[in-house]
Amino acid sequence: MSVTVRVPAKVNVQLAVGAARPDGFHDLANVFLAVGLYDEVTVAPSPGGPRVTCEGPDADQVPLDRTNLAVRAAEALAARHGISPDVHLHITKDIPVAGGMAGGSADGAGALLACDALWGTNASRDELLDICAELGSDVPFSLVGGAALGTGRGEKLRALETGGTFHWVFAMAARGLSTPAVFREFDRLAQGLDIPEPIASEELLGALAEGDPDALAAAVSNDLQPAALSLFPELADTLAAGRSAGALAGLVSGSGPTTAFLARDPESALKVAETLRSSGTCRAVRLATAPAPGATVVSA
Ligand SMILES: C[C@@](CO)(OP(=O)(O)O)[C@H](O)COP(=O)(O)OP(=O)(O)OC[C@H]1O[C@@H](n2ccc(N)nc2=O)[C@H](O)[C@@H]1O
Ligand SMILES: Nc1ncnc2c1ncn2[C@@H]1O[C@H](COP(=O)(O)OP(=O)(O)O)[C@@H](O)[C@H]1O
């Protein structure tokens, strides 16, 4: 018996960051959009588990010990239900590692849903969301997918309406960026400045609801982008290459270093992808549409 769950990556179409809190986190207005690049997590009984394996182009960068978010998810669910996490978790990874697209969070949410089905623990949606929030700020969104506004440290979600399909191109960078390091750089750059309370943009929420790519492009923003560019200045060349090919907008995804380009239609997305591929400014290029559904059981 095994269960497989498919989980999407995300792009942050708005990431407004407040001042550092006493607990080290930052309050956010984080507008998440799930995009059609997926990891899969397959779970099967395995005495003496948990045990994790991973396949995919970036598999060698994924930790296979108890720090893996899929392992932590299995352990958290088992502990709540007083059972042993005797499970083998296999990750088929297509989401770039340390890329600002919430790949680890996707695996955490996927493992949780898969183990719940395997073990018959029948956790409620609220219990699953609570465990997700314990695992990381981005993990609840990986479970729900679609589009959502995350407040607090990003874990308190409100579902957002979306109209139509958005066409995205993603440029994967040659190396990763650490999320805590990018937030630290944000704090360093913000020293002495007055940081406003993070608030979601009404124009942006309206553009999402209308499915209007031009209006969305005019409204996207990422307060972590200056910090990501400060730590990884070459990303400016990737952004320039995608914009020169007609992307409506180009921005760093979350803490980066993946860069995300919004295109008006599929033809324009292909042109942006082609230009990025030949620009020599990135490791790989992928096309994806949004919104994508959240974590979903695909076989059991
Ligand atoms: C920046 C974002 C935007 O969606 O995503 P990524 O770019 O990493 O994918 C998220 O806020 C990342 O969420 P996630 O990767 O789950 O982070 P967590 O494990 O909760 O926290 C890792 C570290 O990031 C910093 N952190 C995270 C969230 C937050 N609201 N404020 C923070 O300062 C803290 O230093 C924390 O110790
Ligand atoms: N299942 C997982 N997949 C990828 N990275 C993981 C996983 N579990 C833990 N990690 C750790 O989380 C870090 C951040 O990875 P990831 O979630 O891919 O990026 P980001 O936080 O930028 O979206 C990795 O460098 C790795 O050390």
Automatic annotation (TrEMBL):
One of its GO terms (biological process) is terpenoid biosynthetic process. Residues 68-146 form the GHMP kinase N-terminal domain. Residues 205-279 form the GHMP kinase C-terminal domain. Keywords: ATP-binding, Isoprene biosynthesis, Kinase, Nucleotide-binding, Transferase. Its EC number is 2.7.1.148. This is 4-diphosphocytidyl-2-C-methyl-D-erythritol kinase. It catalyses: 4-CDP-2-C-methyl-D-erythritol + ATP = 4-CDP-2-C-methyl-D-erythritol 2-phosphate + ADP + H(+). Catalyzes the phosphorylation of the position 2 hydroxy group of 4-diphosphocytidyl-2C-methyl-D-erythritol. ATP binds at P96, V97, A98, G99, G100, M101, A102, G103, G104, S105, A106. It comes from the Bacteria. The active site is at K10, D138. Belongs to the GHMP kinase family. IspE subfamily. One of its GO terms (molecular function) is 4-(cytidine 5'-diphospho)-2-C-methyl-D-erythritol kinase activity. SUPFAM superfamilies: GHMP Kinase, C-terminal domain, Ribosomal protein S5 domain 2-like. Pathway: Isoprenoid biosynthesis; isopentenyl diphosphate biosynthesis via DXP pathway; isopentenyl diphosphate from 1-deoxy-D-xylulose 5-phosphate: step 3/6.
